[in-house]
């Protein structure tokens, strides 16, 4: 007789939310049955969370392809060039903490819907932006929405999935940032081929509106986080939402009874918001979640956004001093093709992270990844001493190693760790603060890279990023908190 036809038993005398999500069914004689598969609702939540990471990669990295055309249309100087590159990142910085923390107050679902609506509004506006000022406003607004998505999307997935597979599920969703980066670069190349004009960059952003609307509609049809409801003292609502989340055929668990945590007599209530975040017991987690993420963003966004510029400047075939639109588009197409090749390694790296995070652990992968990033950047830095084929080989080898290692290690693991090391009551606030702190590094590199590339050169910049990667490895090691397989109820 098939396993699902036999009688299964479950305890219904009151358990935590994570207990029910992680629970295995048992036969009547006490023998464990196979672990239940993910429900349709759990997969729906995962797929809708994927979208935020995809759109971030699309918008931020596509800006690298669109940048020369934007600069030409609006006549940007070096400072304005840096503002365009950093505007969306600055928006992410503000949005992650100012808006992401709202999920601790109003719930994960409401904020999850709000953020994609905000993104769509500014995405539509940028297509018709008439001048540089409105361009910055639109990029900033999109960044606010994407920043809000950093903690919220993580929490929506992690608080609805089993502990044993949480890391792989969160990182596979996060990996769509790399898919978005690759897709954005390829989309930019296709649009430039079909419409080799200065205004082609508007089509690049406009193509994302319709899929974003579909995601917006889908997010209305998911349950609220049972974890958040339980710690908010709404156990009956948590039970109802948990039943929606775990609906499967045959029904399992058959009954759900949540035991919410009650403050013990004489125990001081836990502080929430930023007051709770900076309490002594959370400081180690705060440093681990924030500082390494800041250090990795220095390299990931600096290299990611300006890879087309670096390739066009160092790897020949560029028409120097572009005299017309045709020359500008020619240079942009060359850089886009090289960037697309390098972005493939981002996908390979995130696939490796998905497969290994729940086996090896977050900390080991993050330390190893930081060291690998340093090695890749060091190899790329040697290109300045050579020319021709050797220079090209060093640049591509170094950047390919960097892209693989950053997504295997710090770019993926910092995101994962930030949503796991804080208690549920401040999880959105903590993850949002960590993302905001990290984006300070991203904004610094995006804004200063054009200036520093001109002032001190590519080689010196790459050596500086080698140093920051090694510091990231040290901070991760000394403040390590391993969260592999840990129940979120225990964090």
UniProtKB/TrEMBL annotation:
Keyword annotations of the record: Membrane, Transmembrane, Transmembrane helix, Transport
Annotated TM spans: 45-70, 82-99, 111-128, 134-157, 169-191, 203-222, 285-313, 333-355, 367-386, 392-410, 431-454, 460-479
Pfam families: Sugar_tr
Every Major facilitator superfamily (MFS) profile domain range: 45-484
Gene3D superfamilies membership: MFS general substrate transporter like domains (1.20.1250.20)
GO molecular function (one): transmembrane transporter activity
Subcellular location: Membrane
Primary location: membrane
Listed GO CC annotations: membrane
Topology within the bilayer: Multi-pass membrane protein
Family: Belongs to the major facilitator superfamily. Sugar transporter (TC 2.A.1.1) family.
Protein name (record): Putative metabolite transport protein CsbC
Organism: Martelella mediterranea DSM 17316
Gene: csbC
